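Q: My labmate handed me this sequence with no annotations at all. I'd like to see what the chain might look like in three dimensions before we decide whether it's worth expressing. Could you predict it?
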Amino acid sequence: MEELRYTFMSLARCLSQSNVGAPLDRGGDSSAESQVTDKFSLQAQLLTEGVLALTDASDTEVDADIFDELIKSGVRNFKVGYCQCPVTDFNIHVVEDESQSSVLSDPSASSASLPDPSASPASSTSSGSTVILPSTKSRKRGLRELDHNEARQKVDTVLRSNPKGEEIFKEYDKTKTLSDATRRQMVNILVAEMTESYGRIPLTSVRTSYALGIVTLFPYLEDPYSKNGYEHYYDPEANTGYLAWRLKTVQRNTHDGYRGRSRSDFQDSPTTQWESLLVGEQVLGEECREALSIIRHSTDKSVVKEKMKATFEYRQKLVHDQDATSSVLDVFPRFLDIPGLIDQDFSMMFGDEVSGKFLAKWPSYFKPKVIAESQSLPSSLYVDELRAAFDPETENDYGWDSDLSALLLLLHLLPPTSRGQKKTPKISSAQAANHLLRFVKHGASLTTFLEKVDARQPFLLCIGEQKKKIERFFIVVDQKALPCNALTSVAAFDGLFKAHYVFSISYDEALSSFYTFIQTTVYNIDVGNTKESPRVKELRARLLQEH
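A: Here is what I predict for the chain of 547 residues:
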């Protein structure tokens, strides 16, 4: 163990030396560098290329001074890579038997050319390899199939042994859900016990067991759309969720410099290229050019719609080609004067059943549930104005109609958050509403309005005498107003959502959680393949449970 520890600590020292943001100084600890290159069969020159980083199985960066703590806690999987040269990443796994030591090719790694492939037995054209190192006996904490009853009992015991735990059970028994404040209290109690029992960096299996225990003990908190139902509390694949967030906060507070990174292989659904689900002949070459000419000049709307169907795949390639010099609205200008083309393209992507889900499910099912859930929102001038739309006895001359008010209340339930390493300033839900829809009084100049538009993402333009009595709807894309033949605000929003897919446009950052909820929970598009915040999953669990 001492030899193994020395080897790993030598690596840790090298990593610590490189973490300042520059290649290793070969004039420094040369013995440590030699020990690392010899033990791992590495090419020495690789240690001078880029900035080395050591991470654990959850992609959380490991500092040199907590390496010992990880080994003692039972962690045996690490990844070494270069921040500037990720093709040289390799994985380290500590095993029990020294006779098992070997170098294994990683078939999942992409091909890359490394310096002097013949210089080391560890070299290959693969961008990664697995180095198996010997280890002495350690406490066995291997992953096993989670026991629902054991996980449930663990969480139940922890909560009942805490003075505040009784309040959590009382609220759940009464409402079949937990308020945000109560949920935070529960997570804090569980994480405090978890770190006390398993250390500051509990294993993935431990975190997963606690998350399973929560939804087993409180079944109405389970998310029916996620793979296991507990991912909003802890997602072992992405290392996200309420438990993971609280753990990272505790780790930051107890150790300076311990930084976490979440890995994500989720896709941005609106920008995914889709093939037509509906059978229809697609034109190519000269036939396509002829169809484009007919689309531009024909006055017969039915002919235009047929030719638009025949050019669907060509249009999809155009909207996904970032190097295309012309806008899709320049090539297909009939979006600007023929309503219904957005809905037609969306139906070709997903079929009529998915296309009709929002109109079928929102008014009768989701709208009343959102209204009921919004009663938990703190009172404010803006929220009270939205709620007034549902009270026939309240004067509401300046507010939106009940359908748009319910959508805006959903936005309040899924408010904007700061995102990214360089966090953008957080805006309020009321400010984010301006990214979703805007009102222009009847008679105002539409041209003048569009000239001042600076939004990149689509939004709904509502024109009328009052917000609650809209006469016309437009979907604004690229400073152009696309007519919407919707007779109701629900149908108009349906077209706005679909425009993201038809034109391959990502959601507005401030509306990301809001649109993601609509996408996965109402339309059921890319469920499991789309990154969802724990708040989205938690709200879905609340709304879909039948009390």
